[in-house]
Amino acid sequence: MAKPLIICRDLDITYNKGKSNEFKALSSVNTDIYEGEYIILFGASGSGKSTLMYTIQGSLPPGNGTMLIRGDDIYSYPPEERVYFQRYVMGIIFQQFNLIPSLTVLDNVALPMIFCDADKKKRNRRAQSLLDRFGVGFVSHKIPAMLSGGQQQRVSVSRSMVNDPKILLADEPTGNLDSVSTQQVMDKIDEINTFDRRTVIMVSHNAAHLSYAHRVYYLKDGRIVREVVNPQRKQIKPVKEGETIVTELEQLARLFPYDSIDTLRVKSLVNYLTQDYTYDQLVRLEKSIRYLIKGKLHKDAFVKSLTAPFEAGGIGIDAATARKMAKISTRMIEQADDIRRFRAQREKEASSFFSQDQLAERLRDHLLHSYRLQLSEKQNKNLVDLIADRVTGVIEEATFHEMLARGITVGGLSLAEKEADSLTRYFEKLIAQGVDVSYKS
Ligand code: ADP
Ligand code: MG
User: Fold this and answer.
1) What is the reported pLDDT for 352?
2) Alpha carbons 284 and 309: distance in angstroms, whole number
């Protein structure tokens, strides 16, 4: 059986040892990291993630314990050998990019090759080809300050790979990036792991990143408090029987990566109280619904994907429930289309109130029909206004809800609290389906 590439045994790191500001940043840390793994060090700010990463990188000797790479204690190497190791075995990416401001992008990337045998022309060619690969080749002649954050980070990715390292270390590489640039950088790092088969160790406090990793080490107050295996990736580290069992919370965390643990607990309990679908069934249900929303599955095929037995790739839901789900879903998707059109209209031409009103009226009719409500003329008008205001974001969910219960003369509907509740909840779901980044184009 293969041995781990990186072994940490009982690592302790203390900053300012013996001084009044002595601080123990790592206590008894143990890790086994195998060649080709993608590992995330996850935890709150100050938990010791960076400290552990810099120890692995060879620039922070442990106070106690050992850190071995391929069986070697690199802290016992003479300085020049350790530098060689850092230059050719490790690549590193920082949150703040750390590019040299006065050098061009090309020179920044070529710089770490300065000690190798290749001549300048060869070095530049390699640097340029990496920049091309990571989508920033066209800015190679510029200085870093002229680039966006996302571009600068992709330059750092190119630089980290220039000496063809075995291990890529990344300390919150997307911490300073917007969501689009984050996705691009995450995809590139993923590619380095899956395509180039490099070992990746990434520091992150973003739960949305966890699904990229083979395994996640959770740090808290300088200790590894939990190790989680990602069952969605084929494991490299030999896993013992039973180790891949994940708790429902961990499963939910993957379905709802942005929710807090408290919210996940609520979801878990609600799941328990309202239905007895398993996690695997829910995953398949999500997939079918995604296809339905995208128009890749028609209603009948959707029902079939729900009713087919689990072993045959279905979900094993009974036919009546499946048909009900299909009915509700298709109806909501249709209404969501109206919301999208409504918004598009609003964007295009603020003056075209006629068709906007029509759409709001259709949404009103839909709500009335779904809820079998009978409204007076004034209530009807108020509801159309409220729908228009809510869909365009003029009022928030809470105000929408409040207004449904308020008096008719002040623009409300005078609904009972319970009716207002369920109507609001249903309408918010419709809106969520109708929000679409493409509605602007
Ligand atoms: P993380 O990367 O998880 O945010 P760090 O590893 O950077 O955490 O830091 C862990 C703890 O060690 C923090 O409380 C931090 O203040 C402290 N620390 C980090 N670097 C130093 C240092 N050079 N001197 C003293 N304390 C430090
Ligand atoms: Mg840090």
Assistant:
1) 45
2) 12
Matching residue, tokens 């571009």: 151
Architecture of the structural domain at 6-255: 3-Layer(aba) Sandwich (3.40)
Residue 365's SS3 state is helix
- Ligand at minimal distance from the CA of 15 is 1
Q: How far is the CA of 53 from the centre of ligand 1 (A)?
A: 11
CA-closest residue to ligand 1 atom 16: 46
Q: Does residue 40 surpass a pLDDT of 90?
A: yes
Please identify, by atom number, the ligand 1 atom nearest to the C-alpha of residue 51: 6
- 99-108, 260-269, 298-307, range with greatest mean pLDDT: 99-108
At 354, is the pLDDT very low, low, confident or very high (cuts 50, 70, 90)? very low
| CA nearest neighbour of 220 among 348, 48, 20 | 48
pTM of this structure:
0.62
Ligand 1: centre distance to CA 9 (Å): 20
Nearest partner of 53 among 157, 171, 189, 207, judged by Cα:
171
**Ligand 1 neighbours (beta carbon < 6 A):** 15-16, 23, 25, 43, 45-51
In the chain, domain spans: 6-255, 275-317, 350-435
pLDDT tens-place string over residues 196-205: 999 999 998 7
User: DSSP letter string over 241-285?
Assistant: TTTT---HHHHHHHHSTTS-HHHHHHHHHHHHHH----HHHHHHH
Backbone angles phi, psi at 169, to 5 degrees: -110, 135
Residue 438, pLDDT above cutoff 80: no
**Given ligand 1 and candidates 23, 49, 53, which is best to mutate, with the most ligand atoms within 8 Å of its CB?**
23
